[in-house]
Amino acid sequence: xxxxxxxxxKVFRGSAWFVQNISGNQDVNFPxxxxxxxxxxxxxxxxxxMTPTPHPGDTVxxxxxxxxxxxxxxxxxxxxxxxxxxxxxxxxxGYLIAYVRYHGMxxxxxRCLNHDLVQLVDKAGSCGLILRNRTHVHLSKISRTRExxxxxxxxxxHEDKSQPTALQSTLSELMQKVGAILKRPDPKxxx
Length: 191
Prior knowledge:
Elements: E1 8-13, E2 16-21, H1 32-35, H2 62-78, H3 81-102, H4 107-111, H5 117-126, H6 133-144, H7 147-152, H8 164-182
Antiparallel strand pairs: 1-2
C-alpha cells in the first residue's frame, strides 16, 4: 500500500533547503511541496527554498547591533513585567552579537547559534570577552530554563525568571565591556 502523505520536512544544509523524508518509507507519493519546494503555495517561485532571499540581518554591523541593544536596554529601564524582561533578553543577545561581529564572526555563523546564549558567550569569550562568574551563571540559567520562550509566549507563571536586578547587572556589564571594545579601532573590515 502506498502512503500518500509521508512525513517529510524541509532541512537547511549549507546554503540551500532540501526536503527530507523522515517517515522511513521510500515507496511514497510526496506532496507537491516535497517534490518541488519552488511551488509551495501553488505558485511557482513562491517561497523558493532553493534560492532564499537575503536575510534581513545580512547588513547588520557590530555598531548597529550595539546601538539596537542600547535601545532595548534603555526601554527595559522604563518598563516593567514581561515586556521589560523580553527587552532585556533581546539587549543581552544584541550586546553579545555586537561583540562577536566586531571580532569578525559572520552573520550567517551568528544565526547558526540559534539564539543560544551559552554558545554566544563561549564565542565571545574565545574572542577575548571576560565576564564575571556571576554573569556567566546568570546567562547559563537563562539558556537552561529557556526563559526567553516563556517570556515571549506569555507564560508568566514561569518560576525560574531572572530577577530584575540580575538582568540589570548583566545588561550593565555587557553594555560597558562591549561598548569599551567598540570604541577601539576596528580589528576586522567586516564589522
